[in-house]
Design a protein that fits this description.
Elements (H helix, E strand, L loop, with lengths): L1 H20 L9 H17 L21 E2 L4 E4 L1 H14 L3 E4 L2 H18 L3 H15 L5 H7 L2 H20 L2 E2 L12 E5 L4 E5 L6 E2 H15 L4 H11 L7 E3 L1 H14 L4 E4 L4 E3 L7 H12 L7 H22 L9 H26 L8 H10 L3 H9 L4 H18 L4 H20 L3 H6 L1 H20 L2 H33 L4 H7 L5 H9 L1 H21 L3 H10 L27 H21 L4 H9 L7 H14 L19 H16 L7 H17 L10 H18 L11 E3 L6 E3 L11 H4 L1
Parallel strand pairs: 3-5, 4-7
Antiparallel strand pairs: 1-10, 2-9, 3-8, 5-6, 11-12
Helix pairs in contact: 1-25, 2-12, 2-13, 3-10, 4-7, 6-9, 12-16, 13-14, 13-16, 14-20, 15-16, 15-17, 15-20, 16-17, 17-19, 19-20, 22-23, 23-24, 23-28, 23-30, 24-26, 24-28, 25-26, 25-27, 26-28, 28-29, 29-30
Amino acid sequence: MSDIVNKVKRKFKGQSQAGHNGHAFTLPHGVAGFAFFLTAVFALSFVARLGLDNSVKLFTAGEIATQDVAADQNLQIEDVEATNRKREQVAESQPPVFDVSPLPYEALAKTAGDIVASVRNTDGDDLEKLRWQIAENLNTEIGGDIIEVWRQGEFKDLLEKDVLPWLKQNYEGGVVASTALFAPYKNGILIRDLPSMMETLRVETRDVKDLKQMKDDLEHRLKVSLNKPFRLRKAVYVLVYPLLAPNMTFNQETTQARKREITRAVEPLYYIIKKGEVIVRQGERVGPIQQLKLQALYSHRKGSYNLLRAFGLFGMCLMFLAVLTMSLDKPGIRRVRDTDWVFLGVILLIFGMLAKVADVVTLLPGSGGLPEATRSLYFAASLPMAGAAGILALFFSKRLCIFVSLILSFLAANMVYGGIGIFCYYFVGCMISIYLMKRSETRPQVMRSVLPLFASLCIMWGSLNLMDLSDPAVAGTGLAFVALSAFLSLLAVVGIAPIMELIFGYTSRFRLMELLNLEQPLLQELMVKAPGTYHHSLIVSNMVEAGARAIGANPLLAKVAALYHDIGKLKSPHYFIENISCKENRHNKLAPSMSALILIAHVKKGVELAREHRLGQQITDLIGQHHGTTLIAYFHHKAKELAEAKGDDPIREEDYRYPGPKPQTKEAGLILLADAIEASSRTLVDPTPSRIKGHIQNIVRKIHDEGELDDCQLTLKDLTLLSDTFQRILTGIFHQRIEYPSASKTTDPKNGKTREEPPCAVTPKGAAEHAA
């Protein structure tokens, strides 16, 4: 019998696991759905560059215009000639770079010192050979009298204590080959010290010495300042003059690089063309600038389909998606499912094509009786892109909504051929709508959100006019179209969201509020058939709601899911401890494996009931995850003892574990913790606050150590906050009461003492944690 039960159980668990593997919450983001979304983005990128034939008549300079030509869009054209002149002026004003190096002086000092040292240390015939060698190296004639002076100690002292220090001091300021190098540079020069790379701007170059001035100054110093005899001075000149070299040199490569860099930094000069501006009038002779403007308008005309631009749009959208994908792959972020991608693609197609329709309508003659110059801007301002973001905000996380709104705003702005201003108008409107929808918990709050949305769009519209138009009349008229955009956005949320919710099976915040109503048929059935489970669910829902608010999770979703997390017990309510009254516990007649099978089955049956009653995928996922892969410890221990007593093979632990998956979100982890803590707290004797606290900490530590919370976003800080919150709630539930006389207390006839009647025979204390 036990072998048969184990086979049935393993088969059931295999089916259950297969069923879970088919669920969206265990699959990575769907390839098929993502392909549909990518196709929608691809299609809109190419549709964005389609337009009606609105060719611009092209005239050349000197030709007489046969018709008026007005600009059909805002455009700016670079004035190449003026830009080049400006760049040349800036390049000419860039000071040249001169490098000052310490190497020339160091080489001079070393060579002079070596020559004097070698002369002083050489005698006889070797001295004559040395004289010829030095004369060859210095490329000057050196007489024997010069050699004799070099050998004297007076010359050595003069060289080391006066001449070389003076030369070093003059070299530090820089010495150039000739001051004629500075003649072309009227704005000064940049002097760069090579060792430190410190640069100094020197406007006046008159104080920079060249080699000739260095020689003259040295001669003046020796002759006048030091009053040295001619013979000694001549020996210094013969030794030093050939070794003098400039240490300040022009760095042409760095100078040219600086000029190129500053030239690139110069902003181009543009001719600005405003939409509706008349470029040339009929009968007027076309000038060169007018021809340039006409050529620019012709190359940017809407009727010309530019395939490269379409690929450019699609490429940018792909980069947005790449950033989105990297963001969604972070731990704890719910993976986007097939249905989600399809839903997002449908929203993009609906609102993207709406923008294209508005663009086509603006090109029709006399559309709306509006001026041609501002017609497209008015229609662009009236588009309800914020409504698309509002719809997404009802079902998805902020992060996903922001990225999809970014793609939609980018595509829509290109649909209406708007610039950065229209893009910002759409995107900021989407952000405001997301914020308002996330804060709205009732439908009246959604209706009232139109006012702050309208105010935000008005600010963006005013800013757009200040940037581009500067026309009060246009700004005032456009406010009516801004109001239309806010109103249409509200209609989109109120009208389209319920349809999408019905088609795609999503659970909006308003649907959650409806499910929260205790008059729901499923909750009513739970209250009648399984009152203990119903009461347990109420307590758990209050615990998770408070916990969700403490850690920043979704309190409404967590509370609703907690109310329905045990609906699977409706199929066999009397096999769960909280629903057993004073009847015999049915588990006493079952094998531990069968008892565990019944407990495990309530998760699968709960998922089936959630789908049958259309509770939504989010609630269904949380029901499937509310036990994770925890072990049914009581029946596992009982089965283990029976197997050891009978000498059977060891039992498999996985047969006594819930099939999972583990909690994938904060809300799922919350429900798992609250469910285990509430169920096990029923076994506490004399539940004082300290005992409740210790009990909660033990349960949380046990679940955390078993790895059940590894896949959700709960941190150690969150677990601490949850422990405190759960303790506060359970302490309130188990508060001390005054003991009243009870009919259950009777007097023992033997000793006359009062005793309490024993409770009904129920599942032992250790089973309470998992039986609930």
